[in-house]
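Feature request, filed as a ticket because there's no other form

It would be nice if the structure record came with a short human-readable summary line next to the tokens. Right now we just get the raw output. Example of a typical job, pasted below so the devs can see what we mean:
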Amino acid sequence: MSHSRAGGHLKDMTTRTRLEPLSPDKASPMIRLMYRWAKRRFGEVPEPLAIYAHHPRLVVANSVHEGLLQGGSKVLPVSVRELAVYWTARTVGCSWCVDFGAMLMRLEGLDMDRLEHIDDYAASPLYTDDERAAIAYADAMTTDPHTVTDEQVADLRRRFGAAGLVELTYQIGVENMRARMNAALGITEQGFGSGETCRVPWTDGGSTA
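Raw output as currently delivered:
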């Protein structure tokens, strides 16, 4: 699947979620606490959190996993990891993930202008050889069926070591899960990437303040 086609697919996604976000007045105290924490950290409650809050135990499990994943992913350069994850989200067609990922890259101080040329990553001088290899791996892993080769994995191991290879594979795999879940439930971009005011997940039901 080409990246241009993936970008076009984002526009075809529904603009209304297929499962309504759980508003604060219907949420448990624990979920409301998570809403407040998320709003302080990101500026607004991420819509996936508000939708997956219908299953509180899974939300807690996911939150613990995401925290451990973030803390444990320290082998790869940030740009290598984030570009691979960003490409994965666009390939799947999760506009929310693309939007949120752009915010994370901005907060990491990465060059956002490069994203305008990511379709041409294979030839663009704006990307390093390591970044190109990681994006190509994300593309190969996310294609259905995957097109990963022995040579590709061996090259990545030479570049990043065994731990780096595992970290890259894990990050791409987890982003496939996030993106496919969000796309399936019709969760679309919320406005995080622009750095401006984000859309509130619910239209009524009180405030998280």
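Something like this underneath would help us a lot:
The longest helix spans residues 150-184.
The chain has one domain: 1-196.
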